[in-house]
Amino acid sequence: MTEEQFRALFAANFEDVWSFVRRRVGTDADADDVTADTFSIAWRRREQVPEDFERPWLFRTAHNVLTNLRRSSLRERRLHLRIAAVDPPEVAYESVAEVDGVLWAALAALPRKDRDLLLMRAWDGLEVAGIAAVLGVSAATVSSRLYKARERLHREIARRDRPGGGDVQGRSHGKGNVHR
């Protein structure tokens, strides 16, 4: 494939490849990067691009780039988890959101493994299968652990957020009982 033919291939397929990628990534910038990588590979392998099959070849290449990106991201998350397990960072949950102080205090009181599971699910948006892949355990194990972690969190919240938590028992706050 000549440079001119490659330019024509690029012009004819760039928007479609970018749209294909964009539907599978979180941001336009990620779509830009993956699409650029796709066409970079196409340029390097331009002699191997099958004639009359260029478009599907580009989509397959984009799919492979996305797969490699996900694998890399998963390896990075696993590494971060291993590092955090060896030397966990100090986390001040209370300072993150004062509005939900009870929730953050309850989370901080949970064992690290429970907290990590709950945060991977809630903050990182990982599905059970994704958490299982990160932790290297089965999805059934993750489901069971998540259930138990949620139960412990609910109990901890209930313990911290009892009805009338700030009132002194036995004192009435009705009319005629104003203390100054």
Q: How would you portray this structure in words?
A:
InterPro entries: RNA_pol_sigma-70-like (IPR039425), RNA_pol_sigma-70_dom (IPR014284), RNA_pol_sigma70_r2 (IPR007627), RNA_pol_sigma70_r4_t2 (IPR013249), RNA_pol_sigma_r2 (IPR013325), RNA_pol_sigma_r3/r4-like (IPR013324), WH-like_DNA-bd_sf (IPR036388). Residues 158-180 are annotated as: Disordered. Residues 103-153 form the RNA polymerase sigma factor 70 region 4 type domain. This protein is mainly alpha-helical and 180 residues long. It folds into two domains: 3-75, Rna Polymerase Sigma Factor, Chain: A; 90-160, Orthogonal Bundle (Arc Repressor Mutant, subunit A), CATH 1.10.10. 69% of the residues lie in helices and 0% in strands. It is built from eight helices and no strands. Residues 93-99 and 165-180 have low confidence and may be disordered.
Provide the descriptors you would attach to this structure in a database record.
sigma factor, single chain, 2 domains, mainly alpha, DNA-binding, transcription, 180 residues, Arc Repressor Mutant, subunit A, disordered C terminus
Secondary structure elements and pairings:
Elements (H helix, E strand, L loop, with lengths): L2 H20 L5 H17 L9 H33 L6 H4 L4 H9 L2 H11 L5 H8 L3 H22 L20
Helix pairs in contact: 1-2, 1-3, 2-3, 5-8, 6-8, 7-8
